[in-house]
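CO-FOLDING WORKSHEET

Operator: S.A.
Ligand of interest: zinc ion
Run index: 389
Mode: holo prediction, single chain
Checklist:
[x] sequence pasted
[x] SMILES validated
[ ] output reviewed
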Amino acid sequence: MSLLVRHIGELVTNDPTAGDGNVGRRHDAALLVDNGVVAWIGDSDQAPAADDVLDAAGAAVIPGFVDAHTHLVFAGDRSAEFEARMAGVAYDGRGIADTVTTTRSASRADLEALSRQRRAEMLAQGTTTVEVKSGYELTVDGEQRLVEIAHTLTDEVTFLGAHAIPQEFANDRDGYVALVAGAMLDACSSHARWADAFCESGAFSVEECRHVLGAAAKKGLGLRLHGNQLGHSGGVALAVELGAASVDHCTHVTNEDVALLGDSDVVTTLLPAAEFSTRSPYPDARALLNAGVTVALATDCNPGTAYVTSMSFVMALAVREMNMTVDEALWSSTRGGARALRRDDVGHLGLGARGNLVLLDAPRVAHLSYRPGSALIRHVVRDGRVLGR
Ligand SMILES: [Zn+2]
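OUTPUT RECEIVED:
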């Protein structure tokens, strides 16, 4: 089965060998997906025949978004917390406990339905690859249930037992950390590809995160870290020390942190929807980019600090509020996300990449940031199949 997308006004491949510049841009282009992978890229008037044809009629085509940081398996509603925060109440990270309570009491069927619905919402907005974390039950059986549900949605499942100290361990931090690094990790590791920890004052210390992630690495899991969101947590240095795939948030970083990241293979995943939804200062993307750091953008989709599923919205924030160029924001939302997941088959449309792409309802990619809030996703193609057609 092959699909030809033709008459593409602006095609961003993110493959410098397939077009101009770092984003591999072409005009009046066509692209053939055969057996789920990109098999041909060229001028539209040279396009080969195919089983199915999608006529872009001059519109832009981009790689499917890769959202490398989400917490979408949860139950409950925290819109009242958002409302209070917008009225001046500061975020202190304690709202996670509310979601833990509602998630623990939700049935498996309800949790599955809620998660599927959120995944579908993301896909309709062009996100063809998504990472999903556990972290809202914080018990051995509960976290296992969450990684199992996450695994029905994606292969990019992350065990996040070290998300918060649950109420019942309030006076026994060491006991909880030992549980996460022991029985909980044992129960979750076969359903997860990654382990993550929330390295922050009020969450887990550098030493506690090192202990949990060290145990996870021994189990063969790749590492990610929530770091430097609310302060100088030491998370960046720990992520570099452990060779994590990504350190996420990085809203508060020192010059030393930036230099460390620039000299490492650790991707920095910025989550500006969290700053937007908590009315906080945005991370300094330019300092990171200027230091040669690989930057990804992701939604951080979660019920407390960023109930956002739209990568286009995240791109618009990155361009408007963080001084990233349109091309940088697009690259970070696609190939950057793939790098944060150590994936080379998604996030770009070079030859051999998976046929995951988005046909926009716009002639140029810049419209995604230029017209925020408008419905600009006309078709989503996954593995060469046009969804909903
Ligand atoms: Zn997060």
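REVIEW:
Residues 70 and 354 are 22 Å apart (CA to CA).
The two ends are 15 Å apart (CA to CA).
[x] output reviewed
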